[in-house]
Amino acid sequence: MPAAVRLTNVVKRFGALEVLKGVSFEINTGEVVALIGQSGSGKSTALRCINRLEAIQDGSIEACGHRVEDPKLDLRALRRDIGMVFQSYNLFPHMTVAQNIMLALRRVKNMPKDQAYEIAEQVLANVGLSEKIDNYPEQLSGGQQQRVAIARSLAMRPKVMLFDEVTSALDPKLTGEVLRVMEDLARGGMTMIVVTHEMGFAKRAANRVIYMHTGKVWETGGSDILSNPQTPELKEFMAEEL
Amino acid sequence: MLGAFSTNHLFYLLNGLLWTVVLSALAFVLGGIAGFFVMLARVSRFRWLRRTALVYIQIVQGTPLLIQMFLLYFGLGVFGIAVPPLVAAGLGMMVYSSSYLGEIWRGAVESIAKTQFEAAECLGLTRWQALRDVILPQALKIATPPTVGFLVQLVKNTSLASVVGFLELTRAAQVINNSLFQPFLVFGFAALFYFCVCYPLSVWSRSLERKLNAGRR
Protein backbone atom coordinates (compact mmCIF):
# COMPACT_ATOMS: atom_id res chain seq x y z
CA MET A 1 0.00 0.00 0.00
CA PRO A 2 1.45 3.41 -0.90
CA ALA A 3 2.16 5.80 1.94
CA ALA A 4 -0.56 8.41 2.49
CA VAL A 5 2.05 10.95 3.53
CA ARG A 6 5.79 10.75 3.02
CA LEU A 7 8.38 13.32 4.09
CA THR A 8 11.88 12.92 2.71
CA ASN A 9 14.77 14.98 4.12
CA VAL A 10 12.55 17.99 4.65
CA VAL A 11 14.34 21.22 5.53
CA LYS A 12 12.42 24.25 6.70
CA ARG A 13 13.98 27.56 7.65
CA PHE A 14 12.46 30.72 9.06
CA GLY A 15 15.09 33.22 7.99
CA ALA A 16 18.35 31.99 9.51
CA LEU A 17 16.59 29.65 11.92
CA GLU A 18 16.50 26.06 10.72
CA VAL A 19 13.39 24.49 12.22
CA LEU A 20 13.37 21.19 10.34
CA LYS A 21 16.79 19.69 9.67
CA GLY A 22 16.16 16.86 7.26
CA VAL A 23 12.97 15.25 8.55
CA SER A 24 11.83 11.96 7.03
CA PHE A 25 8.85 9.82 7.96
CA GLU A 26 5.99 7.94 6.36
CA ILE A 27 2.39 7.47 7.32
CA ASN A 28 0.37 4.68 5.78
CA THR A 29 -3.29 4.83 4.93
CA GLY A 30 -5.41 4.09 7.97
CA GLU A 31 -2.57 4.74 10.38
CA VAL A 32 -2.81 7.01 13.41
CA VAL A 33 0.49 8.65 14.21
CA ALA A 34 1.23 10.76 17.26
CA LEU A 35 3.87 13.42 16.68
CA ILE A 36 5.37 14.38 20.02
CA GLY A 37 8.20 16.53 21.32
CA GLN A 38 9.05 19.69 23.25
CA SER A 39 7.80 23.03 22.00
CA GLY A 40 10.26 24.22 19.39
CA SER A 41 11.10 20.68 18.28
CA GLY A 42 9.50 21.35 14.90
CA LYS A 43 6.50 19.02 15.20
CA SER A 44 3.86 21.66 14.43
CA THR A 45 5.96 23.05 11.61
CA ALA A 46 6.30 19.58 10.09
CA LEU A 47 2.53 19.23 10.23
CA ARG A 48 1.96 22.63 8.62
CA CYS A 49 4.37 21.77 5.82
CA ILE A 50 2.27 18.75 4.86
CA ASN A 51 -0.62 20.85 3.60
CA ARG A 52 1.68 23.68 2.60
CA LEU A 53 0.70 26.26 5.14
CA GLU A 54 4.50 26.54 5.20
CA ALA A 55 6.72 26.16 2.15
CA ILE A 56 9.82 23.99 2.54
CA GLN A 57 13.36 24.87 1.44
CA ASP A 58 14.67 21.38 0.68
CA GLY A 59 13.58 17.77 0.54
CA SER A 60 10.23 16.54 -0.67
CA ILE A 61 6.75 15.84 0.67
CA GLU A 62 4.21 13.57 -0.92
CA ALA A 63 0.67 13.66 0.42
CA CYS A 64 -2.27 11.73 -1.04
CA GLY A 65 -0.49 11.56 -4.38
CA HIS A 66 0.34 15.30 -4.48
CA ARG A 67 3.88 16.57 -4.72
CA VAL A 68 3.56 19.24 -2.04
CA GLU A 69 6.82 21.12 -2.77
CA ASP A 70 6.03 21.37 -6.48
CA PRO A 71 5.42 25.05 -7.37
CA LYS A 72 2.76 23.93 -9.84
CA LEU A 73 0.86 22.04 -7.14
CA ASP A 74 -2.93 22.43 -7.20
CA LEU A 75 -3.24 23.75 -3.65
CA ARG A 76 -7.00 23.40 -3.53
CA ALA A 77 -6.84 19.78 -4.64
CA LEU A 78 -4.29 19.08 -1.91
CA ARG A 79 -6.47 20.72 0.69
CA ARG A 80 -9.55 18.84 -0.42
CA ASP A 81 -7.67 15.66 0.48
CA ILE A 82 -6.22 16.88 3.77
CA GLY A 83 -8.24 18.23 6.67
CA MET A 84 -6.71 20.27 9.45
CA VAL A 85 -7.78 21.18 12.96
CA PHE A 86 -6.00 23.91 14.93
CA GLN A 87 -5.24 24.62 18.56
CA SER A 88 -7.35 27.79 18.46
CA TYR A 89 -10.39 26.11 16.77
CA ASN A 90 -10.59 28.89 14.15
CA LEU A 91 -14.34 28.66 13.70
CA PHE A 92 -15.76 31.59 11.77
CA PRO A 93 -17.36 33.72 14.51
CA HIS A 94 -19.88 35.48 12.25
CA MET A 95 -21.44 32.20 11.10
CA THR A 96 -23.58 29.64 12.86
CA VAL A 97 -22.30 26.12 13.38
CA ALA A 98 -24.27 24.96 10.33
CA GLN A 99 -22.92 27.81 8.19
CA ASN A 100 -19.38 27.06 9.33
CA ILE A 101 -19.73 23.49 8.11
CA MET A 102 -21.66 24.31 4.94
CA LEU A 103 -19.37 27.07 3.64
CA ALA A 104 -16.71 24.88 2.05
CA LEU A 105 -19.23 22.26 0.95
CA ARG A 106 -21.05 24.92 -1.01
CA ARG A 107 -18.08 26.96 -2.24
CA VAL A 108 -15.56 24.21 -2.90
CA LYS A 109 -17.82 21.26 -3.72
CA ASN A 110 -20.62 23.39 -5.21
CA MET A 111 -23.17 21.44 -3.23
CA PRO A 112 -26.79 22.65 -3.08
CA LYS A 113 -27.81 24.14 0.23
CA ASP A 114 -30.12 21.38 1.46
CA GLN A 115 -27.58 18.68 0.67
CA ALA A 116 -24.85 20.61 2.51
CA TYR A 117 -27.21 21.03 5.48
CA GLU A 118 -27.81 17.27 5.60
CA ILE A 119 -24.08 16.66 5.75
CA ALA A 120 -23.75 19.27 8.48
CA GLU A 121 -26.41 17.39 10.48
CA GLN A 122 -24.59 14.08 9.97
CA VAL A 123 -21.13 15.27 10.98
CA LEU A 124 -22.52 17.12 13.98
CA ALA A 125 -24.28 13.94 15.10
CA ASN A 126 -20.92 12.17 14.83
CA VAL A 127 -19.34 14.60 17.28
CA GLY A 128 -22.42 14.64 19.51
CA LEU A 129 -23.47 18.25 18.89
CA SER A 130 -26.66 17.94 16.86
CA GLU A 131 -28.53 20.35 19.12
CA LYS A 132 -25.98 23.14 18.53
CA ILE A 133 -26.46 23.39 14.77
CA ASP A 134 -27.98 26.88 14.86
CA ASN A 135 -25.74 28.31 17.58
CA TYR A 136 -22.90 30.73 17.07
CA PRO A 137 -19.39 29.66 18.09
CA GLU A 138 -19.29 32.11 21.00
CA GLN A 139 -22.27 30.31 22.54
CA LEU A 140 -20.27 27.08 22.77
CA SER A 141 -17.61 25.90 25.21
CA GLY A 142 -14.04 25.48 23.99
CA GLY A 143 -14.45 21.73 23.78
CA GLN A 144 -17.66 22.06 21.81
CA GLN A 145 -16.05 24.57 19.44
CA GLN A 146 -13.19 22.19 18.80
CA ARG A 147 -15.61 19.35 18.10
CA VAL A 148 -17.40 21.58 15.59
CA ALA A 149 -14.03 22.38 14.00
CA ILE A 150 -13.37 18.65 13.65
CA ALA A 151 -16.85 18.12 12.19
CA ARG A 152 -16.32 21.01 9.76
CA SER A 153 -13.15 19.40 8.51
CA LEU A 154 -14.70 15.91 8.31
CA ALA A 155 -17.59 17.22 6.25
CA MET A 156 -15.19 17.63 3.34
CA ARG A 157 -14.37 13.90 3.51
CA PRO A 158 -10.59 14.30 3.66
CA LYS A 159 -8.31 11.30 3.20
CA VAL A 160 -5.91 12.49 5.90
CA MET A 161 -6.58 14.56 9.01
CA LEU A 162 -3.95 16.74 10.66
CA PHE A 163 -4.43 17.77 14.29
CA ASP A 164 -2.24 20.56 15.63
CA GLU A 165 -2.30 20.49 19.44
CA VAL A 166 -6.06 20.58 19.35
CA THR A 167 -6.52 20.16 23.11
CA SER A 168 -3.77 22.49 24.30
CA ALA A 169 -6.13 25.43 24.76
CA LEU A 170 -8.67 23.38 26.71
CA ASP A 171 -8.92 22.61 30.40
CA PRO A 172 -8.67 18.92 31.34
CA LYS A 173 -12.43 18.49 31.70
CA LEU A 174 -13.03 19.58 28.10
CA THR A 175 -9.97 17.79 26.73
CA GLY A 176 -11.63 14.42 27.27
CA GLU A 177 -14.64 15.08 25.05
CA VAL A 178 -12.40 16.16 22.16
CA LEU A 179 -10.06 13.18 22.55
CA ARG A 180 -13.05 10.81 22.56
CA VAL A 181 -14.16 12.19 19.19
CA MET A 182 -10.66 11.69 17.85
CA GLU A 183 -10.47 8.15 19.17
CA ASP A 184 -13.78 7.34 17.46
CA LEU A 185 -12.33 8.70 14.28
CA ALA A 186 -9.19 6.59 14.67
CA ARG A 187 -11.27 3.46 15.20
CA GLY A 188 -13.20 4.34 12.06
CA GLY A 189 -10.00 3.95 10.04
CA MET A 190 -9.16 7.62 9.39
CA THR A 191 -5.52 8.37 8.58
CA MET A 192 -4.45 10.83 11.25
CA ILE A 193 -1.33 12.75 12.19
CA VAL A 194 -1.74 14.15 15.65
CA VAL A 195 0.63 16.66 17.18
CA THR A 196 -0.11 16.33 20.86
CA HIS A 197 1.03 16.54 24.45
CA GLU A 198 -1.63 14.03 25.50
CA MET A 199 0.48 10.95 26.19
CA GLY A 200 -2.59 9.03 27.28
CA PHE A 201 -4.15 9.60 23.88
CA ALA A 202 -0.92 8.62 22.13
CA LYS A 203 -0.83 5.35 24.08
CA ARG A 204 -4.49 4.49 23.51
CA ALA A 205 -5.07 5.58 19.93
CA ALA A 206 -1.75 5.81 18.07
CA ASN A 207 -0.39 2.95 15.98
CA ARG A 208 2.92 4.69 15.91
CA VAL A 209 4.71 7.46 17.74
CA ILE A 210 7.24 9.85 16.25
CA TYR A 211 9.34 11.76 18.74
CA MET A 212 10.90 14.91 17.35
CA HIS A 213 13.79 16.74 18.98
CA THR A 214 15.68 19.86 17.75
CA GLY A 215 14.20 19.67 14.26
CA LYS A 216 14.88 15.97 13.67
CA VAL A 217 13.04 12.70 14.03
CA TRP A 218 14.72 11.40 17.15
CA GLU A 219 12.93 8.19 17.94
CA THR A 220 10.06 6.34 16.36
CA GLY A 221 8.17 3.17 17.06
CA GLY A 222 4.94 1.73 18.42
CA SER A 223 3.26 3.41 21.37
CA ASP A 224 5.36 1.15 23.63
CA ILE A 225 8.32 3.52 23.15
CA LEU A 226 6.48 5.88 25.48
CA SER A 227 6.85 3.47 28.37
CA ASN A 228 10.17 2.11 27.16
CA PRO A 229 12.11 4.99 25.53
CA GLN A 230 15.44 4.17 23.90
CA THR A 231 17.04 7.62 23.75
CA PRO A 232 17.90 9.70 26.83
CA GLU A 233 16.08 12.68 25.26
CA LEU A 234 12.75 10.84 24.99
CA LYS A 235 13.30 9.44 28.49
CA GLU A 236 13.73 12.94 29.82
CA PHE A 237 10.75 14.21 27.78
CA MET A 238 8.50 11.48 29.14
CA ALA A 239 9.64 12.23 32.68
CA GLU A 240 8.62 15.88 32.18
CA GLU A 241 5.26 14.97 30.68
CA LEU A 242 4.31 12.68 33.58
CA MET B 1 -23.96 100.37 -0.26
CA LEU B 2 -24.15 97.21 1.73
CA GLY B 3 -27.21 95.04 1.25
CA ALA B 4 -28.91 93.09 4.02
CA PHE B 5 -28.73 89.36 4.51
CA SER B 6 -32.00 88.02 3.09
CA THR B 7 -33.76 84.72 2.63
CA ASN B 8 -32.45 84.74 -0.94
CA HIS B 9 -28.94 84.58 0.45
CA LEU B 10 -30.00 81.81 2.75
CA PHE B 11 -31.34 79.78 -0.16
CA TYR B 12 -28.14 80.44 -2.05
CA LEU B 13 -26.21 79.03 0.87
CA LEU B 14 -28.56 76.03 1.12
CA ASN B 15 -28.01 75.38 -2.56
CA GLY B 16 -24.27 75.43 -1.84
CA LEU B 17 -24.84 72.99 1.00
CA LEU B 18 -26.68 70.69 -1.40
CA TRP B 19 -23.62 70.64 -3.70
CA THR B 20 -21.37 70.02 -0.71
CA VAL B 21 -23.45 66.96 0.09
CA VAL B 22 -23.46 65.85 -3.55
CA LEU B 23 -19.69 66.21 -3.79
CA SER B 24 -19.21 64.36 -0.49
CA ALA B 25 -21.45 61.52 -1.64
CA LEU B 26 -19.67 61.33 -4.97
CA ALA B 27 -16.27 61.28 -3.27
CA PHE B 28 -17.43 58.63 -0.82
CA VAL B 29 -19.00 56.30 -3.37
CA LEU B 30 -16.32 56.60 -6.06
CA GLY B 31 -13.51 56.83 -3.51
CA GLY B 32 -15.00 53.85 -1.71
CA ILE B 33 -14.95 51.75 -4.87
CA ALA B 34 -11.39 52.81 -5.67
CA GLY B 35 -10.44 52.41 -2.01
CA PHE B 36 -11.71 48.84 -2.04
CA PHE B 37 -9.25 48.05 -4.81
CA VAL B 38 -6.50 49.92 -2.97
CA MET B 39 -7.22 47.71 0.04
CA LEU B 40 -7.19 44.54 -2.11
CA ALA B 41 -3.85 45.59 -3.60
CA ARG B 42 -2.43 46.26 -0.13
CA VAL B 43 -3.28 42.76 1.13
CA SER B 44 -2.35 41.06 -2.14
CA ARG B 45 -0.02 38.08 -2.39
CA PHE B 46 2.02 39.95 -4.97
CA ARG B 47 4.75 42.19 -3.69
CA TRP B 48 4.76 44.51 -6.70
CA LEU B 49 1.04 45.16 -6.24
CA ARG B 50 1.43 45.87 -2.53
CA ARG B 51 4.33 48.21 -3.33
CA THR B 52 2.45 50.05 -6.06
CA ALA B 53 -0.53 50.62 -3.78
CA LEU B 54 1.75 51.85 -1.01
CA VAL B 55 3.45 54.34 -3.32
CA TYR B 56 0.03 55.59 -4.46
CA ILE B 57 -1.09 56.05 -0.86
CA GLN B 58 2.10 57.81 0.16
CA ILE B 59 1.93 60.23 -2.76
CA VAL B 60 -1.73 61.04 -2.17
CA GLN B 61 -1.41 61.36 1.60
CA GLY B 62 1.90 63.20 1.33
CA THR B 63 0.59 66.05 -0.82
CA PRO B 64 -2.12 68.60 0.00
CA LEU B 65 -5.55 67.91 -1.43
CA LEU B 66 -5.60 71.55 -2.55
CA ILE B 67 -2.54 71.02 -4.75
CA GLN B 68 -4.10 67.86 -6.20
CA MET B 69 -7.17 69.83 -7.17
CA PHE B 70 -5.06 72.58 -8.73
CA LEU B 71 -3.21 69.95 -10.72
CA LEU B 72 -6.42 68.41 -11.95
CA TYR B 73 -8.15 71.68 -12.73
CA PHE B 74 -5.39 73.97 -14.03
CA GLY B 75 -2.81 71.30 -14.87
CA LEU B 76 -5.01 69.35 -17.23
CA GLY B 77 -6.22 72.64 -18.70
CA VAL B 78 -2.68 73.32 -19.94
CA PHE B 79 -2.94 70.21 -22.12
CA GLY B 80 -6.13 71.57 -23.62
CA ILE B 81 -8.30 69.24 -21.55
CA ALA B 82 -11.15 71.35 -20.25
CA VAL B 83 -12.07 69.99 -16.85
CA PRO B 84 -15.38 71.23 -15.41
CA PRO B 85 -15.12 72.19 -11.72
CA LEU B 86 -17.38 69.32 -10.66
CA VAL B 87 -15.15 66.77 -12.40
CA ALA B 88 -11.91 68.27 -11.07
CA ALA B 89 -13.32 68.47 -7.53
CA GLY B 90 -14.93 65.03 -7.76
CA LEU B 91 -11.76 63.39 -9.07
CA GLY B 92 -9.59 65.08 -6.48
CA MET B 93 -11.90 64.06 -3.64
CA MET B 94 -12.15 60.54 -5.01
CA VAL B 95 -8.38 60.08 -5.12
CA TYR B 96 -8.09 61.55 -1.64
CA SER B 97 -10.76 59.35 -0.09
CA SER B 98 -9.60 56.20 -1.91
CA SER B 99 -6.20 56.40 -0.25
CA TYR B 100 -7.58 56.97 3.24
CA LEU B 101 -10.43 54.47 2.97
CA GLY B 102 -8.05 51.92 1.46
CA GLU B 103 -5.80 52.22 4.50
CA ILE B 104 -8.65 52.17 7.02
CA TRP B 105 -10.04 49.01 5.44
CA ARG B 106 -6.64 47.36 5.13
CA GLY B 107 -6.19 47.87 8.86
CA ALA B 108 -9.57 46.25 9.50
CA VAL B 109 -8.78 43.27 7.26
CA GLU B 110 -5.40 42.77 8.90
CA SER B 111 -6.93 42.95 12.37
CA ILE B 112 -8.76 39.70 11.60
CA ALA B 113 -6.51 36.92 12.79
CA LYS B 114 -4.36 35.25 10.15
CA THR B 115 -5.58 31.93 11.49
CA GLN B 116 -9.04 32.68 10.07
CA PHE B 117 -7.46 32.86 6.64
CA GLU B 118 -5.57 29.62 7.28
CA ALA B 119 -8.69 27.81 8.41
CA ALA B 120 -10.52 28.91 5.26
CA GLU B 121 -7.64 27.91 3.02
CA CYS B 122 -7.35 24.52 4.71
CA LEU B 123 -10.97 23.90 3.81
CA GLY B 124 -10.07 24.43 0.15
CA LEU B 125 -11.45 27.94 -0.30
CA THR B 126 -9.62 30.21 -2.73
CA ARG B 127 -7.99 33.36 -1.44
CA TRP B 128 -10.81 35.43 -2.86
CA GLN B 129 -13.51 33.20 -1.35
CA ALA B 130 -11.74 33.33 2.01
CA LEU B 131 -11.64 37.11 1.81
CA ARG B 132 -15.24 37.47 0.71
CA ASP B 133 -16.93 34.93 2.98
CA VAL B 134 -14.70 34.88 6.04
CA ILE B 135 -12.54 37.99 6.36
CA LEU B 136 -14.56 40.87 4.90
CA PRO B 137 -17.79 40.25 6.87
CA GLN B 138 -15.76 40.36 10.08
CA ALA B 139 -13.68 43.33 8.93
CA LEU B 140 -16.79 45.29 7.94
CA LYS B 141 -17.93 45.53 11.55
CA ILE B 142 -14.54 46.81 12.66
CA ALA B 143 -14.20 49.22 9.74
CA THR B 144 -17.58 50.93 10.04
CA PRO B 145 -16.90 53.37 12.92
CA PRO B 146 -13.64 54.78 11.46
CA THR B 147 -15.23 54.91 8.01
CA VAL B 148 -18.09 57.05 9.28
CA GLY B 149 -15.55 59.11 11.20
CA PHE B 150 -13.63 59.68 8.00
CA LEU B 151 -16.82 60.98 6.36
CA VAL B 152 -16.59 64.00 8.65
CA GLN B 153 -13.13 64.81 7.26
CA LEU B 154 -14.44 64.26 3.78
CA VAL B 155 -17.36 66.68 4.15
CA LYS B 156 -15.14 69.39 5.63
CA ASN B 157 -12.50 68.96 2.94
CA THR B 158 -15.01 69.49 0.14
CA SER B 159 -14.63 73.18 1.06
CA LEU B 160 -11.32 73.07 -0.82
CA ALA B 161 -13.28 72.57 -4.02
CA SER B 162 -14.23 76.25 -3.78
CA VAL B 163 -10.79 77.19 -5.13
CA VAL B 164 -11.47 75.49 -8.46
CA GLY B 165 -14.69 77.43 -8.79
CA PHE B 166 -17.02 74.68 -7.68
CA LEU B 167 -20.05 76.37 -6.18
CA GLU B 168 -20.41 74.44 -2.94
CA LEU B 169 -21.16 75.83 0.49
CA THR B 170 -17.85 77.65 1.08
CA ARG B 171 -17.78 79.14 -2.41
CA ALA B 172 -21.40 80.24 -2.03
CA ALA B 173 -20.53 81.96 1.22
CA GLN B 174 -17.59 83.72 -0.45
CA VAL B 175 -19.82 84.95 -3.27
CA ILE B 176 -22.37 86.38 -0.84
CA ASN B 177 -19.72 87.93 1.35
CA ASN B 178 -18.15 89.62 -1.65
CA SER B 179 -21.31 91.63 -2.07
CA LEU B 180 -22.45 91.97 1.56
CA PHE B 181 -19.13 92.29 3.44
CA GLN B 182 -20.59 90.64 6.51
CA PRO B 183 -18.07 87.84 7.01
CA PHE B 184 -19.11 86.90 10.55
CA LEU B 185 -22.71 86.48 9.60
CA VAL B 186 -22.18 84.77 6.24
CA PHE B 187 -19.36 82.44 7.20
CA GLY B 188 -21.08 81.85 10.52
CA PHE B 189 -24.05 80.45 8.65
CA ALA B 190 -21.72 78.35 6.48
CA ALA B 191 -20.01 76.97 9.61
CA LEU B 192 -23.40 76.19 11.13
CA PHE B 193 -24.44 74.25 8.04
CA TYR B 194 -21.22 72.24 8.01
CA PHE B 195 -21.73 71.50 11.67
CA CYS B 196 -25.30 70.31 11.05
CA VAL B 197 -23.95 67.71 8.61
CA CYS B 198 -20.79 66.72 10.46
CA TYR B 199 -21.97 66.55 14.05
CA PRO B 200 -24.57 63.81 13.51
CA LEU B 201 -21.95 61.82 11.60
CA SER B 202 -19.44 61.97 14.42
CA VAL B 203 -22.12 61.10 16.98
CA TRP B 204 -23.07 58.14 14.81
CA SER B 205 -19.46 57.05 14.48
CA ARG B 206 -18.95 57.15 18.24
CA SER B 207 -22.11 55.18 18.93
CA LEU B 208 -21.05 52.55 16.37
CA GLU B 209 -17.75 52.29 18.13
CA ARG B 210 -19.42 51.84 21.51
CA LYS B 211 -21.62 49.08 20.08
CA LEU B 212 -18.61 47.37 18.56
CA ASN B 213 -16.70 47.42 21.83
CA ALA B 214 -19.73 46.21 23.74
CA GLY B 215 -20.08 43.30 21.34
CA ARG B 216 -16.49 42.29 21.90
CA ARG B 217 -16.60 42.27 25.65
Textual characterization of the structure:
- Chain A has 242 residues and is an alpha/beta fold.
- Chain A has helices spanning 43-50, 75-81, 97-107, 113-126, 142-154, 172-187, 199-205, 232-241; strands at 3-14, 17-28, 32-36, 58-63, 66-67, 82-85, 160-164, 191-195, 208-213, 216-221.
- Chain A has a single domain (3-91, 161-241), classed as P-loop containing nucleotide triphosphate hydrolases (Rossmann fold).
- Chain A contains 8 helices and 10 strands.
- In chain A, the strands form 2 sheets. A 6-stranded mixed β-sheet of chain A has the order 6-7-8-3-9-10, sandwiched between helices. A 4-stranded antiparallel β-sheet of chain A has the order 2-1-4-5, covered by helices on one side.
- Chain A is globular.
- Chain A starts with a strand and ends with a helix.
- Chain B has a single domain, classed as MetI-like (MetI-like fold), CATH 1.10.3720.10.
- By secondary structure, chain B is mainly alpha-helical.
- Chain B has 8 helices and no strands.
- The chains are: A alpha/beta (242), B mainly alpha (217).
- At the A-B interface, helix 2, strand 6, helix 3 and helix 5 of A face helix 5 and helix 6 of B.
Number of helices of chain A: 8
Enter the CATH topology name of chain B. MetI-like fold
Rg of chain A, alpha carbons: 18 Å
Rg of chain B from C-alpha positions? 21 Å
Distance between the termini of chain B: 64 Å
How much helix, percentage-wise, in residues of chain A?
A: 25-40%
CATH top level of chain A is: Alpha Beta
Instruction: Give the total of beta strands of chain B.
Output: 0
By CATH, the superfamily of chain B comes out as MetI-like
Quickly give the structural class of chain B.
mainly alpha
Report the top-level CATH class of chain B. Mainly Alpha
Low-confidence stretches of chain B: none
